[in-house]
Design the sequence.
């Protein structure tokens, strides 16, 4: 029985169609005006239809969204941000169910219906942050499909007991475990990576490693990750997040590394920060190195920026990398939607039969127009349920 019909919409700016949805999935896409329904019918008014956005790198446990403004403080280094967050987070009730829920609601407002989120696991909070995020997602009816990366933000080897927490998280349902700057934070990259890969291989989970280190120090750690991925047979299960060094290397050095990353099946998650070096995205695409886009933290103790709009992140990626042609601009949208599917373990993600019914309607001429203007999301369907109508949240 049909539960929802999106009538007269234009997937990817193409000809108008009717999208038939039942039991949370798209079951048919037919020419506009030819579908019938026994459930709710929504007139799409010829609006542009895109798949729900996929946020491949988030930190939904950290935000003070919805609270009074929190001034930026502490030192502007990775270690400085860690120390500041550890000193201040309890004051602002971080992490909490309400805080995570506020971020997930902003994701929905902007059309994000799936996310891979890093959640801090450390000696201070244990696994409480993961419990809070899952409770927040459940309170929204799992409209945002959430995957958890148990993330050791305060280091691994330098904090005895964190490895045990990561192992517990993996045993209790986290789809990935994380790592952080094995060289500059733990100052023992071999020990950190060996320990993380041992858990990932034994627990059959993914591995997602934050790497901020630049230049040859960053490249050296890529090589260690590549070696271990191939040795453990974890192709398709390892992600480097940020990875700023890749854009800083010489062209020849980049090319060799991209070939090796492709061979090892390692993916890349980026938030396309404004002052970072552009990635060799064409070579990465050609060699099968998956790229995912993410928002990173949103209004947290690391940064006052962010609003949860992945479309704006896609625009930032396009501007950072000098994308100009229609095909290139469309590619930025694909990174934020269909290409993000693999980061949340989906075999398909689109406005097509068989996909989870995640559909975003925008008042835009085409995908290129949607990218450069980032108009409001007129309608968002998540898992077959209308969660945004006329730009307003309904959850």
Sequence:
């Amino acid at each position: 029985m049909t539960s929802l019909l999106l009538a007269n919409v234009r997937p990817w700016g193409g000809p108008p169609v009717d999208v038939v949805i039942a039991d949370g999935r798209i079951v048919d896409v037919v020419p506009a005006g030819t579908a019938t329904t026994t459930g709710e019918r929504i007139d799409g008014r010829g609006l542009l239809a895109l798949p729900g956005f996929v946020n491949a790198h988030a930190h939904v446990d950290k935000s003070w969204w919805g609270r009074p403004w929190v001034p930026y403080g502490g030192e502007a280094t990775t270690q400085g941000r860690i120390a500041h967050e550890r000193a201040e987070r309890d004051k602002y009730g971080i992490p909490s169910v309400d805080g995570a829920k506020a971020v997930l609601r902003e994701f929905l407002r902007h059309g994000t219906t799936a996310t891979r989120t890093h959640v801090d696991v450390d000696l201070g909070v244990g696994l409480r942050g993961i419990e809070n995020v899952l409770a927040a997602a459940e309170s929204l009816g799992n409209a945002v499909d959430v995957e958890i990366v148990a993330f050791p933000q305060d280091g691994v080897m330098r904090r005895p007991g964190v490895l045990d927490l990561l192992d517990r998280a993996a045993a209790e349902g986290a789809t990935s475990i994380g790592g952080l700057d094995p060289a500059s934070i733990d100052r023992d990259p071999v020990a950190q990576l060996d320990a993380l890969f041992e858990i990932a291989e034994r627990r059959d989970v993914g591995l997602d490693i934050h790497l901020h280190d630049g230049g040859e120090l960053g490249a050296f750690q890529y090589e260690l990750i590549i070696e271990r991925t191939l040795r453990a047979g974890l192709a398709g299960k390892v992600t480097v997040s940020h990875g700023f060094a890749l854009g800083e290397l010489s062209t020849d050095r980049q090319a060799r590394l991209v070939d090796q990353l492709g061979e090892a099946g390692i993916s890349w998650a980026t938030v396309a920060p404004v002052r970072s070096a552009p990635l060799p995205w064409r070579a990465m695409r050609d060699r099968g190195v998956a790229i995912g886009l993410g928002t990173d933290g949103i209004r947290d103790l690391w940064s006052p920026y962010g609003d949860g709009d992945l479309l704006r992140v896609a625009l930032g990626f396009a501007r950072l990398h000098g994308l100009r042609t229609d095909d290139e601009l469309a590619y930025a949208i694909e990174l934020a939607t269909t290409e993000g599917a693999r980061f949340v373990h989906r075999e398909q993600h689109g406005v097509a039969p068989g996909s989870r019914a995640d559909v975003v309607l925008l008042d835009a001429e085409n995908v290129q127009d949607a990218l450069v203007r980032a108009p409001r999301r007129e309608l968002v369907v998540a898992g077959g349920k209308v969660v945004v109508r006329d730009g307003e949240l309904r959850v």
User: Anything to note?
Assistant: The mean pLDDT is 97. The chain has two domains: 4-51+350-393, 53-344. The longest strand covers residues 40-51. The chain is about 30% helix and 25% strand.
